[in-house]
Amino acid sequence: MLEWLNQFLGNHPFVSILDILIVWFIIYRLIGYAKQSRAMNLLQGIGLIIFAKFLSQGIGLQTIDWILGQVISWGVVALIILFQAELRKVLENLGKILFRNRQSSRNPSEELIEDLKKSLLYMSKRKIGALISIEAEDSLAEYIGTGTKLDSEISSQLLINIFIPNTPLHDGAVIITDFRIASASCYLPLSESKLIPKELGTRHRAAIGLGEKTDALTLIVSEETGAISIVKNDFLHRDVDKEELHELLNKYLFTEVEKDNQENENSHIIKNLLTMLRSSKGGKKNE
Q: pTM of the entire structure?
């Protein structure tokens, strides 16, 4: 069968175009992912080293060319060791594209959004600090394990009670997974970004740090100002009001329709490609 496909499509000009489009799409997605993480600086450094390698080779700087060759040869191993977390995330995202995780793509109910809104607005009015992370596609199991496991249903009363000052669970983050409170008083990774304004505290840095590593949605209530903020994919929405809070929760939590639309669009593209192949095949037969 592979030999038949090779004979049928091997010399077809459309296959070459499809090959270029696939490579372009992969590079495009990698650059898009790199812009949302520290990998962008890494790609720029790699590009500079490769450029210097070709330049030194062309000019005839043999010593520099040999050194850069060694750096590139051993750099692959070093990158795998240093960026194993980022590589794991890339592979996980690739698996999500090929095999959709239907268990985690369920839509939350209106009650969940109402409970989140009610608790956030209550704590905001009274300047009760809060940090709530909602698991999406990326697993938060390693962070759930750092806190006190609850595995309880979500309610505004419970969320408010957890963050009341001087209670055992108020310090840290609440993590919600599968529309249940999985754990409280959890430790989240702090962002080391220098772009974060200095007036933002540890809660905001933890929320942005989690957004840099996962696709979780994190809700923050400032203990100093009572302002509500939302972090998604290291993007920070600061000082959101009641209406904006409702809009953002709907936008980030109700994702099933958007995923279905994207799948339909991908299916439409594949059908068009197959149609072009069949049409081209029919044209050859007519000739």
A: 0.57
